[in-house]
From TrEMBL:
<feature type="region of interest" description="Disordered">
    <location>
        <begin position="1"/>
        <end position="31"/>
    </location>
</feature>
<feature type="region of interest" description="Disordered">
    <location>
        <begin position="44"/>
        <end position="65"/>
    </location>
</feature>
<protein>
    <recommendedName>
        <fullName>Periplasmic glucans biosynthesis protein</fullName>
    </recommendedName>
</protein>
Length: 93
């Protein structure tokens, strides 16, 4: 005679969500989503992707690439001003 395994055994053995309730302070008892440490109700797999796929995307001036470019430009301008001051102070104009 075959021993039937309980199909819910995998669900019971699944890792649990690591989030805590704000109200009670007790840990969430739901199973965590595969590859995440939290359950679907506490944010696993949630949120939108970056870039134009995000519904809050408006013009691209706050993207990571744009911010890095502005930082690089500001560094170059700062270096140019320092170089100009050095040239002015040495009287080589």
């Amino acid at each position: 005679m075959k021993h039937a395994s309980n199909p819910m055994q995998k669900a019971h053995a699944a890792p649990r969500c690591t989030a805590k309730s704000k109200r009670t302070g007790l840990p969430c008892k739901n199973p965590a989503v595969k590859g995440w440490t939290v359950c679907r109700m506490h944010g696993a797999g949630g949120g939108h992707g970056p870039g134009k796929a995000n519904p809050a995307y408006k013009h691209g001036m706050r993207t990571r690439e744009a911010q890095e470019m502005r930082k690089d430009i500001n560094d170059l301008v700062r270096l140019a001003r320092e170089l100009e001051q050095l040239l002015d102070s040495s009287g080589q104009r």
